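tokens incoming
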């Protein structure tokens, strides 16, 4: 049979004091309404490595492979139709 340890009131007091001083959120955490769809596509080994390299470039924040792809797509979307076609032609089948 396992003996129950006696609680030390001094430790309990310290725990309570620590917990009482803990920061409480001033604003409720809002749940994201974004819905993500998992998509699979094929990449060459070279392009796959390039995405990994791009993920490591930011030094002041973390980013992911998905965020690199999103940034590329959104950047393309800001261009004119002619610019998009030129870029897509340049990298088609590469």
């Amino acid at each position: 049979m396992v003996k129950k340890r006696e609680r030390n009131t001094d430790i309990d007091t310290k725990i309570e004091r620590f917990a009482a001083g803990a920061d409480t959120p001033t604003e409720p955490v809002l749940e994201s309404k974004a819905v993500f769809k998992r998509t699979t596509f094929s990449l060459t080994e070279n392009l796959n490595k390039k995405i990994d390299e791009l993920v490591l470039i930011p030094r002041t924040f973390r980013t992911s492979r998905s965020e690199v792809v999103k940034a590329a797509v959104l950047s393309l979307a800001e261009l004119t139709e002619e610019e998009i076609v030129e870029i897509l032609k340049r990298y088609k089948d590469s």
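note: Residues 35 and 72 are 19 Å apart (CA to CA).
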